[in-house]
Structure formats: C-alpha cells, structure tokens
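Fold this sequence, please.
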Amino acid sequence: MRCAISQPTFLPWLGWFDIVDQSDQMVILDNVQFEKRSWQQRNRIRTPNGLDFITVPVKTSGRYYQTINEVELVDPKFPEKFLKTIKSNYSKAPHYKYVIGELEQVIISSTESGKLFDMNFGLIKLIAKWLGVDKNFRLASSFLASGKRGEYLAMICSELGATTYISTPGSEAYLIEETSFFNSRGIKIFLHEYNHPIYKQLHDPFIPQASAIDLIMLYGADSRQIFHAAQRAWRSL
C-alpha cells in the first residue's frame, strides 16, 4: 500500500495533487508546527506580471509553536479580497464561470471557523474534485503516532499498514538521514518527480508551478486529461 503525507498547502500546484493521485492513502499533516510565510500560508497564480503570490494573513504574534490546525485567520475580509484577486486575473479565462461559483461557495464556507487549516483543506478537496483525484484524505492528528520528522512519518505509514512512502524531492536530505525509521518497519521510500504539463495560459510565455486553479480556469473539465497525461516518476531513495 502506497502512502503519501503532506502539509495542507494553500492552493496547491499540480505536482501536489499528482502525489495524492499516485497514493493509496493521503495523510494531511495538520498537527505539526506552522512555519510563517510557508506554502501553507501562500501560493502563486498566473498574472500579466508572471507568477504573483496570494498570501493569507494569519495570527502569529506570540504563537511561534502553534500547529497548523491552530492557526487563525487575522483578516475577516480575506475571502472577499481573495475572490477579487481571482476575478481580476481570471475573469477572461474560458472556464471562469465553471470555477468561480463553486470556488466562492467553498472559500466562504471554509473560512467561517476562522482557521487557516479549514480553508486550505476545503480548497484542497475542491481542486481534487475538479482534477478527478478521488482519494480519501486522513488527518495526521487522528493517528496514535508520535515522534519527530522521519520517525513520525514512518509511524503513520506503519499504522496504516503502508509498504511504500511517496515523498517530495525537497525532503530527500533529512529522509536520507532517517531512513532507518522506515527500513525497520519494512517501508520503502520513493521520491516523486513531476514533469509539469505545458498548456496555453492567459499570458505568454508559459510559466509552470502556478496553483492548480490556473489550469482549471483555462480548461475546465478537460483539466483532468491534461493533469493525468503529465509525465510522472518515482525515484528510489
């Protein structure tokens, strides 16, 4: 059984969803320490100026050790500002109407709690549906596992009965140092490598690694085919 474990990114790019798509079980790390100005708080969309960040304002003062599922939104008007930014940059996209109605519903409902995690998770599930990624998400906080970094991930995999762990290449350095936690449990580590599909954006030239909503705004239901046609590979650690 293949397991992937990742923090809940804000508006993830296509590569994030490809890891989900290739796993049998996706675990969302909701209970690890939040890092300010990380991908949990911001991401990029395609604009006339290139890739520009949308950053979610959150409460961090005096909360250095807060976990991701504890982080609170600081600006009650953020949903309105977020939607305005999306509309101003994608209103001319071919499938804007296909996306914006449901996006508006989810961003409003998922921010009612005032928690960053609830908003991110709501957006993740919506984009996964648009891309045809039909997976069951589980939260790390629902497991009995404990420990730090590699040990914690290996314990979650073990609790699930996973024999394969799929990770992003960015985690390679520390996973090399901590492979013993996986080896002792009979779990093989593979690094996910994603070759981003090239498609016609609203502005030239094509720039990869924008939020997945860029593709969906442009191709609507056809985004699934483009997404799944992208080259992907695993590399054994």
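The chain is about 40% helix and 20% strand. The chain has a mean pLDDT of 96.
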